Amino acid sequence: xxxxxxxxxxxxxxxxxxxxxxxxxxxxxxxxxxxxxxxxxxxxxxxxxxxxxxxxxxxxxxxxxxxxxxxxxxxxxxxxxxxxxxxxxxxxxxxxxxxx
Length: 100
Known about the structure:
Elements: E1 2-10, H1 15-30, E2 35-41, E3 55-62, H2 65-72, H3 75-84, E4 88-96
Antiparallel strand pairs: 1-3, 1-4, 2-3
Helix pairs in contact: 1-3
């Protein structure tokens, strides 16, 4: 299994718009072969350590590196990238393996 933690930072004040675009691809991603989990998360109310008001984190689980690679080149991901590019200030993607 492969885990992915992706931190997406919107341009100031644009997180809601970026999340709106992101949510449009969730059904297509869930339908991808090898997708176990895929969804956005934001800071919990009252959290001491925060990513901030412009950031959300995508938590992903994939059956294999091959499934993740196929996801990254899926047509709906390319379309999302085009729609989101003007809303996005930055992103950091961490691909992880379970600790053994």
